[in-house]
Design brief:
This protein has 4 helices and 4 strands; from the N terminus they run H-E-H-E-H-E-H-E. It is α/β, with parallel strands linked by helices. The protein has a single domain, classed as 2-enoyl-CoA Hydratase, Chain A, domain 1 (Alpha-Beta Complex), CATH 3.90.226.10. It has a 4-stranded parallel β-sheet. Helix 2 runs parallel beside helix 3. The chain is globular, with a radius of gyration of 14 Å. It starts with 11 loop residues before the first helix and ends with a strand.
Length: about 110
């Protein structure tokens, strides 16, 4: 019996990520660094290219991190045509709070 592997070779985490992308949800749940920024940016562009202009939700729970990497995310949120909603769930400290402000007024929320 496989613990976290499915018969098709995908882990449960892979399947969850797949469903979240289908729902146009991106999670930033780590310290902001080059790797986490690259992951968020790639997902933003994947969603932009698959359905331009359709809303995307960026859920943030981050202690902050690299200013350069954070502004790379900010720039891409501003560049794509899909409107991005930011939702802070938990913590958005330092650069995490700045990224939460990258969404247009009226599209920024915190729980």
């Amino acid at each position: 019996m496989a613990s976290d592997k499915e018969l098709n070779g995908k882990t449960i985490d892979d399947k969850i990520d797949e469903q979240l992308l289908k729902a146009r949800r991106i999670f930033l749940s780590d310290q902001i660094d080059q790797d986490s920024a690259s992951s968020v940016i790639r997902k933003l562009w994947y969603l932009e290219l698959t359905d331009p202009g359709k809303p995307i939700t960026l859920v943030i729970n981050s202690p902050g991190g690299s200013v350069d990497s954070g502004f790379a995310i900010w720039d891409q949120v501003k560049l794509i045509s899909s409107p991005v909603t930011t939702l802070v769930s938990g913590l958005a400290a330092s650069m995490g709070s700045i990224i939460s402000l990258s969404a247009a007024k009226g599209r920024r929320f915190a729980t």
